[in-house]
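Intended use. Records such as the DNA polymerase III PolC-like N-terminal domain-containing protein entry shown here are meant for training and evaluating sequence-to-structure methods. They are not intended to support clinical decisions.
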Amino acid sequence: MQISLEDARKKWPEFIQVLEKDSPALTFILKLAELHEVNGNTFVIAVGHQFHRDKLNEKHCMQKIESMLAPIYGGNINLNIVLKDKKAIVEKKQELDSLASAFGGEVVA
């Protein structure tokens, strides 16, 4: 099975809706997460906190999520849970600040 990141992201809200009925706690974590990459039938999910990564990697949570993904995506989906690269986020902010400063402005969030 081959699915693109774009196609995976299009169906992601449908998956979240299905999961929400069964597991609000997992839904909360996955709403904060990012579907970061797709490699074959493996979805790479980036989360912001180690606690969320640990929770999603628990065997029963992983099985629940993967079993709910299968009918939506038409086949078995494996998950790889990773931490978001906080260093890259900080560097991006510094880059934006520098750019804004060069034009005499500032970044407003």
